[in-house]
Amino acid sequence: LAAAGATFKDVVRLKVFMVDWNLDKAPAFFAGVEQAAKDFDLAPAPVSLIGVAALYEPGLLVEVEAMAVLA
To answer: Fewer Cβ in 10 A, N or C end of the chain?
Structure first.
């Protein structure tokens, strides 16, 4: 974001890729989203959660793709 001159306030959409997603993980996931929104003073943005078998880097469990719009 910083490289493009954007901040978290410019984020309009998030895609979250999570390894081995199941509904048992939902409460912790949504609690984390709420905490991040508080920590970074974020306005709620639409979020897509996509369960995957693995990510490119071994050992990673979550990858976040953020889309920002600059005026």
So the answer is: C
